[in-house]
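Ticket #4471: structure output looks truncated?

Reporter: J.K.
Steps to reproduce: submitted the chain below (159 residues) through the standard prediction queue, then opened the result file.
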Amino acid sequence: MNFAGPIRRLYAFTIDFGLIMMIIYAIAPAANGVMFSQEAVPQDLIFFFGYFIIPTVIWGRTPGKWVAGIVVVDSEGQTPGPAAIPREMIGKFVSYLAAGIGIFWLMLDPKRQGWHDKIAGTYVVDNPYSGGPQFMKDFFKIGEKKPRDKSDKKPNADS
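Returned output as attached by the reporter:
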């Protein structure tokens, strides 16, 4: 695996942050307090869940990670799935609680993992399909897994 460096991860975060700010500034005035206000915490949490968690579970990346050409994978190189998300959220909470040391840790780690990545058992790696037609073909292959090796395949009934 080719682990993504801190600059590309910061770039992805910046893209995501910018997109979220554009969405908030476009929707909040028209929402009349239904979204993005102090009275709309549940709706806001659902929005952030939809932006960060769902794409990461399905495709292993947010829009920012797609633009940066990186993807979140587990130790086997597959999309981590929903089981890793609670661990990653707890890891991010712990990382920020420790004055951000857990986030900055990825600069020192040889596998470029922050504490949240270590707790979740995930890695952020270069993505060979960062945009273009091949990405669009692979983007819509929801839940499709590549076989790990030939021994994982079921034996043929004809043999």
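Triage note (M.O.): checked the attachment and the full token line is present. The chain has a mean pLDDT of 84.
Status: closed, working as intended.
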